[in-house]
Write a structure and sequence with these properties.
five-stranded mixed beta sheet, 2 domains, globular, mainly beta, 391 residues
């Protein structure tokens, strides 16, 4: 990245460091080693009225506002209700929520097929704001937020960093993608990945053949995918092999909130801290791609359709699928709110608060439920599995 003049510009020498990945060793997370945790997800209803959004090309959000960019134009949904639309532009290629050129905390913007940047203003009207970022003479390929103050734009032969009232361009030959977060930007290049610090404008280049996507986690950690593997930066700054899919099945990687999501064949996976988890029956289309959500959810785009998924805590998943029906059959007549037992067990939170007592009375002493309230051995085993502390 070498600075080129725009406005006041900057003149910084940016060192480029190369980290070879040979000898990273075997992946710590593989199915064969049993090191992949189960992942439960649920579909999030983001369009409850089934408003027509056409064939979707991109999506971005800010708070409870979701903007869908597709071949029918722009559709704006607020708290799930369609509130505005604009059909003036239909060839969208990218979308993001970035710092506004007027200092606003968030603008939702889209990039069209001509490389123009459009701000979705108010009730859905579109403003061409390329010039507001000093890029009226350049074709923009994608936009991303680097942090709460700075944004970056990928151009044909450069990256433009906007913040503090100025825009500075840096040469960026053959960058194919750009993602930002935690004050850093990450780009896939012809021979690997570049990670740059938005504040110091220092960069580091990682040589990695076959890199397809690069994202920045919430703590500034770099994640990179190839068709088969996911790498992550180590405390020393090098890349280490994190996950081996064992086949060329990876086709998505995004950072969303505290989660880093990936698509592995028909499944969704997530990296959260030191844990790698994956679903077992998500049934994703093989051509699907992922888009981030500030909530920590993940958007799945496939063949013009749009879905949203959220992680489900294991206890919540078990409660909904297995324990809540047991409660309804055997416990609800006494343990509803204001029930005759005086103990409300109608929610997962209530079960968690009474976990020890439930184990003692239902599993160990078998004094609950009382006579006349049948509880099958299968149901009792489900309660035992939930209530017994894991060693």
């Amino acid at each position: 990245m070498n600075p080129s003049a725009y406005g006041r510009g900057l003149s910084l020498a940016i060192p480029v460091l190369v980290a070879a990945l040979a000898g990273c060793g075997a992946a710590p997370h593989t199915r064969g080693a049993g090191a992949i945790a189960p992942l439960a997800v649920r579909a999030v209803e983001w369009n409850p009225t089934q408003a027509s959004v056409g064939r979707v090309h991109a999506v971005a959000e800010a708070g409870n506002v979701v903007v869908v960019f597709g071949d029918s134009g722009v559709r704006v949904l607020s708290s799930g209700a369609l509130v505005a639309s604009d059909g003036a532009v239909t060839d969208w290629v990218d979308a993001a929520a970035i710092r506004g050129a007027d200092g606003a905390e968030r603008w939702i913007v889209g990039v069209d097929g001509r490389g123009q940047l459009h701000y979705v203003r108010g009730l859905g009207s579109l403003d061409d704001v390329s010039g507001r970022y000093g890029l009226q003479d350049r074709r923009i390929r994608s936009a991303t937020a680097l942090d709460g103050e700075r944004s970056a734009f990928l151009l044909d032969d450069a990256v433009a960093v906007a913040g503090g009232g100025r825009v500075t361009r840096y040469a960026a030959t053959a960058w194919s993608s750009l993602a930002g977060g935690a004050g850093f930007g990450a780009a896939v290049t012809r021979n690997g990945v570049v990670l740059f610090d938005a504040s110091t404008l220092q960069s580091r280049t990682y040589a990695l053949a076959g890199a397809t996507r690069a994202v920045v986690g919430p703590d500034g950690r770099l994640f990179v995918s190839t068709p088969r593997s996911i790498y992550a930066s180590t405390p020393g700054g090098d890349l280490g092999l994190l996950f081996d899919a064992e086949h060329d099945t990876l086709h998505g990687l995004v950072a969303s909130g505290s989660n880093v999501w990936f698509a592995d064949g028909a499944e969704l996976g997530v990296v959260a801290g030191a844990v790698v988890a994956e679903t077992s029956a998500a049934r994703l289309p093989s051509d699907s791609d992922l888009a981030p959500s500030s909530s920590g959810d993940v958007w799945v785009l496939a063949a013009g359709t749009l879905q949203r998924f959220a992680r489900v805590a294991p206890d919540a998943s078990l409660w909904a699928s297995r324990l809540s029906p047991v409660f309804a059959r055997a416990c609800s007549s006494c343990h509803e709110p204001k029930g005759v037992a005086g103990v409300d067990l109608s929610t997962l939170a209530a079960w968690q608060a009474e976990q020890g007592a439930i184990r003692e009375r239902v599993v160990v002493g078998r004094t609950m439920p009382p006579e006349g309230h049948a509880l099958s051995e299968e149901d009792r085993e489900a309660i035992r599995a939930w209530a017994t502390p894991q060693k």
